[in-house]
Amino acid sequence: MLCDDVKRAVYFFLDGSLAAPKQHDFTEHLSLCPDCDRRTSVHRRLRIFVLARLKPESAPDRLKQRLARTFRAMGAEWS
């Protein structure tokens, strides 16, 4: 695997969606290339940071109830 391949596949690697042979090639390349290893580490930390900030939060119950009433009213108007 070449450095350009690593740049293109880093997000697939971090998602765990690379096929086993490519995953192995990727990991092997990282062990041999400090630049790609460092770049992948930055992407990993960035991914963790973003995912932590995007954790789903449930809407308050009052908002859910208001939305349900609004949607029912809109459905009644369109019928």
Concise structural overview:
The protein is mainly α and 79 residues long. The protein has helices at residues 3-15, 20-32, 34-53, 61-78. The protein has one domain (3-78).
- Number of DSSP helices? 4
When the domains are counted, the total is 1
Radius of gyration, whole Å: 22 Å
Determine the N-to-C terminus distance.
Answer: 59 Å
Number of strands: 0
Helix content: over 70%
Q: Look at the helices and sheets and give the structural class.
A: mainly alpha
SSE run: HHHH
The backbone outline, from C-alpha atoms, is elongated
Beta strand %: under 5%
Mean pLDDT: 92
Unreliable spans: none
If you had to describe this structure to a student in words, what would you say it looks like?
- The protein is 81% helix and 0% strand.
- The model has no long low-confidence stretch (mean pLDDT 92).
- The chain is mainly alpha-helical and 79 residues long.
- The chain has one domain (3-78).
- Helix 1 (3-15) runs parallel beside helix 3 (34-53) and helix 2 packs across helix 3 (34-53).
